[in-house]
Amino acid sequence: MNQFNICPSCMHCSTCVLTAQKDKVWSCSEFDEIKTTEIIVETIERPKRSLELV
Amino acid sequence: MTTITAGLNNITQEIPVRGMMANVMEQFNSAADQINLHPNIRKILSITNNEIIVNFPVKMDNGEVEIFTGYRVQHNNALGPYKGGLRYHPTVDIDAARALAMWMTWKTSLAGLPFGGGKGGIKIDPSKYSKDELERITRRFTFALADNIGPEHDIPAPDVNTNSQTMAWMADTYMSTRPPAERTANQHVVTGKPAGSGGLDGRDRSTGYGVYLSIKFWAEKNNKTLEGKTFIIQGFGNVGYWAGYFLEKDGAILVGVQDAYGSIQNKKGIQVEDLFKYIQVSDGSVVNFPNAQSVNKDDFFGLDCDICIPAALGNQITKENAPSIKAALIAEGANGPINVEGEKILLERGITIIPDILCNSGGVVGSYFEWLQNRNGELWQYDEVMGKLHKKIKESFDKVYEYSEREAMDMRTAAYCIAIKRIEKAYVQRGIFP
């Protein structure tokens, strides 16, 4: 069953001393989202399209 | 009770799993039994009014299109528009949203607000998306929800991974979908907006101020002052910091703090403002604060103090640590910090608990003030906000305290009884259509 659980996406998850029940936390004052340091934007080559009247 | 069916060597075994909804229902049924709730009202309150699931497409920065799933659960609106947070998280689902929406119904009812309960969010890991993508996701979600939200119907607020910026995007998108002459009259479709875009002055400290007030009112009822009283706080985030700030101003002494990094104590006192400044330069951690000693994490709740404020997360005070607690009062700044076994031990030991739905209700009262401010086209001053918060929290506290004294029950059960009775009264007065 899917449970609310915010620890895996918290940056303190591996070192946090607040709880050992890191599969049951649905709200926490210490929660800080893991930030990706760099967002990689892929540039995709797309074929040029043109409108055709049919 | 939800069940999981697991196949083991061709034998099918039913394993009961206790979900969040089961916990909330147990609390509801226990209070409903206490007040002898009418069976028809029990039926109504046991189920959500509306559950909205939207799948919507969003263009990503790389030109691809992704489909997202968003939820909004509206539990009950007998007292007013649905009110509750929106969270962006991979584990957002309908069951959890149901439980939290129901919990919001009790919270708004107890606070005496003209609101019902709602909750929702998007199943998403926000760290994987750029700010521009999150803006488009938020705006498209708002558009997909369409008239399922509205300033007089359902008013979302920030929650996990959503903030004042998210609310500003939502308000702007919703207002843009209205006819031009109506746009500015719809700013109160969400609360928790930035101060410059309809937000409330003092909203940031309203939850912590409510925690402080609850403690102060309890002290007054027991002919005590806060001068010289010692307190410990678990979680030095927004709630913990502001609760400590106001308690210290009233003469109380902070003697212990625990956060995600570790625990510290100083029997002579830790200056709240000094600690706050310290964590700004120590990556948010209280560890190694110069004027304090380190404490073992398992000994934290057993520190000598008069007041204990768990303001971080749930299930912190259990049968393991409840016997060692020295405080005479526990003020629940967090949601559900004491589990059932822990609470039983504390009550047997004569320790008072100010329950979460009362103690941390300053936040939702602050949201109500923001909604009122926008609705009336006003700009409230800070002093006015704090004065109104004081009045509102005092009303709630007095009701719960007196009910618990009169009925000889703990404050949590009293709070649930009052909250459910208020909704029952609305149904009895209005009747059931047709």
Residue runs with pLDDT of under 50 for 5 or more positions of chain B? 1-17
Order of helices and strands of chain B: EEHHEEEHEHEHHEHEEHEEEHEHHHH
Q: Which assembly state applies to the chains in this document?
A: heterodimer
Helix-residue proportion of chain A = under 10%
Number of helices of chain A: 0
Largest sheet of chain A: none
Q: What percent of residues of chain B are in strands? A: 15-25%
- Class computed from helices, strands and strand pairing of chain B: alpha/beta
Write down the overall mean pLDDT of chain A.
Answer: 75
Instruction: Point out poorly predicted stretches of chain A.
Output: 38-43
Describe this entry's structure for a reader:
Chain A is largely without helices or strands. Chain A contains no helices and no strands. Chain A is rod-shaped, with a radius of gyration of 21 Å. The N and C termini of chain A lie far apart (53 Å). The relative contact order of chain B is 0.12. Chain B has 434 residues and is of the alpha/beta class. Chain B contains 13 helices and 14 strands. The interface between A and B is large, with 33 and 49 residues.
Write a concise synopsis of the structure shown:
The complex is a heterodimer of chains A (54) and B (434). By secondary structure, chain A is low in regular secondary structure.
Question: Could you give the topology of this structure?
Answer:
The complex is a heterodimer of chains A (54) and B (434).
Chain A: no helix or strand
Chain B: E1 2-8, E2 11-17, H1 20-34, H2 39-45, E3 50-59, E4 65-76, E5 82-89, H3 94-110, E6 117-123, H4 131-145, E7 154-158, H5 164-176, H6 206-221, E8 230-234, H7 238-249, E9 253-258, E10 263-265, H8 272-280, E11 293-295, E12 307-310, E13 329-331, H9 340-348, E14 352-354, H10 356-359, H11 362-375, H12 382-406, H13 411-430
Parallel strand pairs in B: 5-6, 5-7, 8-9, 8-12, 12-13, 13-14
Antiparallel strand pairs in B: 1-2, 3-4, 4-6, 9-10, 10-11
Helix pairs in contact in B: 1-3, 1-13, 3-13, 4-5, 6-7, 6-11, 6-12, 11-12, 12-13
